[in-house]
Amino acid sequence: MPIHQVMRLSRGAIIELDATEADEVKILANALPVASGVVLVDRNRIAVEVKQMLSKAVGSR
Fold first, then answer.
1. Distances in Å between the alpha carbon of 13 and those of 8, 49, 51, 52, 60?
2. Cβ neighbours of residue 43 under 8 Å, at least 6 residues apart?
3. CB atoms near residue 5 (< 10 Å)
4. C-alpha–C-alpha distance, residues 48 and 20, integer Å
């Protein structure tokens, strides 16, 4: 989801994820992977914990 769409979300907005709690996810910037992490769920809050920053070589095309 582009950041401009994230910034327009209102409180209570629902974002569907293709991952569940404790799944490993890739974090993208400009469609390139920049980090990996895991999905965390704490009551009604969802977050992504960054576990590893990826080198430029991994994300380059």
1. 10, 21, 26, 28, 33
2. none
3. 10
4. 11
Q: What is the pLDDT of residues 35-45, one digit of tens each?
A: 999 988 888 88
The DSSP symbol for 15 reads: -
Nearest residue to 44 via CA among 18, 12, 1: 12
What are the helix (H) ranges across 10-55? none
Q: How far apart are CA 61 and CA 18, in angstroms?
A: 24
pLDDT digits (tens, 9 = 90+) for 16-60: 778 888 889 998 888 899 999 998 888 888 888 999 999 875 545
Cα Rg of the chain, angstroms: 13
Tokens of 16: 């569907």
